[in-house]
Specification:
five-stranded mixed β-sheet; 5 strands; about 60% helix; alpha+beta; about 230 residues
Length: about 230
């Protein structure tokens, strides 16, 4: 009986590991494709628009400044749009500027919609690029969900390195949600699949009509074995 139980447990663990690998491979493939398209938009289309904008700025419109101003305004809007699309597809410059600066840029871009406070405890160390990209994606998805659904006016993002893991806490003062009712939504699924892809554990803490909070712990050496680790 013990042998059968052990075999079943081994099969289950092997299947779980296989599913994790599939999720990771799928996310990595998606990120590579997103990166390819984002770089193309950022480097090629963005540069072409900038060159065209400079050319237009030096164009002699024979005194018709209104036409020049209107075209230049449209060109600037196109450049901003290309940059926004590029960043939404993949954080192109994250590897060079780091996660914290990229989050600050996200906060600045959303400042007209909601107040976001970022607190990074001194001592935070740069992580593997894949890990930081996934963390950025999670924060991006969370803030988007809060703005769309929670009626919140404030979001707090807290990041701290502990001896064995990095903690990321995202909370808001919105109306919260019932996890069982929304867990099948793409936003929640994306967040949880990205969390799994970096071997992290997470926990949702929600008080309907009051607030919501997402707690994530990212281990340095994959030492977390189960979701209970988030409560320790």
């Amino acid at each position: 009986m013990d042998r059968i139980t052990k075999e079943k447990n081994a099969q289950y663990e092997a299947e779980v590991l296989h599913q994790k690998r599939l999720v990771l491979e799928n996310i990595k493939a998606q990120e590579e494709e997103r990166k390819r398209i984002a770089v193309m938009i950022h480097d090629d289309m963005g540069n072409r628009l900038n060159i065209l904008s400079l050319w237009l700025n030096n164009l002699d419109t024979k005194g018709d400044e209104l036409i020049k101003k209107n075209i230049y305004g449209q060109m600037s809007a196109l450049i901003d749009s290309a940059r926004t699309i590029s960043h939404s597809l993949y954080p192109v410059n994250l590897e060079s500027v780091g996660l914290v600066l990229y989050i600050e840029e996200l906060i600045a871009n959303l400042s007209h919609k909601i107040h976001i406070s970022l607190h990074v405890v001194p001592g935070y160390k740069k992580k593997d690029v894949f890990v930081e990209v996934q963390l950025y994606r999670i924060i991006q998805e969370c803030t988007t969900n809060v703005i769309k659904h929670s009626k919140a006016t404030k979001i707090w993002i807290y990041i701290k390195d502990y001896p064995q893991y990095t903690a990321v806490i995202i909370s808001d003062n919105g109306q919260g949600f019932d996890y069982d009712l929304v867990k099948k939504g793409m936003g929640i699924k994306n967040i949880e699949s990205r969390t799994k892809s970096i071997n992290a554990v997470h926990k949702w803490k929600n008080i309907p009509d009051k607030r919501s909070r997402l707690i994530i712990k990212i281990p340095y050496n994959n030492e977390f074995q189960d979701q209970n680790s988030v409560n320790r």
